[in-house]
Amino acid sequence: MSLKINFSNYENIVFFTGAGMSAESNIPTYRGSGGIWHKYKFEEYACQVAFDRDPEKVLEFHKIRRKAVLECTPHNGHHAIAKFERSRGGVSIVTQNIDGMHQRAGNINITELHGSLFRVRCLNHGTHEDLGAFTEFKCSCGQYLRPDITWFGDSLDQGVMEKALSLISSCDLFISVGTSGVVWPAAGFPEIAKKAGAKCIEINPEPSEMSYLYAETIQGKAGEILPDLLL
Ligand SMILES: [Zn+2]
């Protein structure tokens, strides 16, 4: 890894992270070969219809997911971004991941596009954090608590999307880490950053279909590249 960036030249830096970032912590991925959606039908576990039909089945599934995530730990790439955020202002993360790994590494400015495995919401009482093992399936009002995740068929949270777009269109350095870049709307992010005048850098084990949008593609693992790059 030879690329050196003079970060003091940049005021607002966005890290955009995807499944590859989590996969390096051995978190089971959802899409792709060997992904969760090859083993489980998402129609039965990850959509509102399934939840309405059999909430406990869906909640049991998410309980297993949460347990699997809690058995993993943030890697050196997560830690490097957390240290970097502590060291200066103007650092934010926009992530497609729902596993809370950036929080566990110590990052603060995190926009979770697809929600969080560690939040639930009640139809009557709104959203709250739930860091435990899904011991309570129901709110005190009797409603089943729904995982606060963007499921298949759900639209993205408008407020979250607006926040992400505002960060991306006002950054001057956009660093994409472990994203395939093909899932919409995330697929449009590097282009938005580029149009706004940001320098765009991609870190990925394999070049993505979107590599042409980036000024630089650094091929390699986030856990190896980031500690070096953000030193
Ligand atoms: Zn409630």
Give the helices and strands, then pairings.
Layout: E1 13-17, H1 19-23, H2 36-39, H3 42-45, H4 48-53, H5 55-70, H6 76-87, E2 91-95, H7 101-105, E3 110-112, E4 115-122, E5 126-129, E6 146-149, H8 158-169, E7 173-177, H9 189-195, E8 199-204, E9 216-219, H10 222-229
Parallel strand pairs: 1-2, 1-7, 2-3, 7-8, 8-9
Antiparallel strand pairs: 4-5, 4-6
Helix pairs in contact: 6-10
This protein binds zinc ion.
Zinc ion is lined by residues 122, 124-125, 139, 141, 143.
Largest sheet: 6 strands, parallel
Number of strands: 9
Number of helices: 10
The gyration radius over C-alpha positions equals 18 Å
Per the principal axes of the C-alpha atoms, what is the gross shape? globular
Indicate the structural class: alpha/beta
Q: Please trace the helix and strand order, writing H or E for each element.
A: EHHHHHHEHEEEEHEHEEH
* Helical percentage: 25-40%
Strand order of the largest sheet: 3-2-1-7-8-9
Poorly predicted runs are none
Mean pLDDT reading: 92
The proportion of residues in beta strands is: 15-25%
Distance between the termini: 13 Å
Cofactors, ions and other ligands in the entry: zinc ion
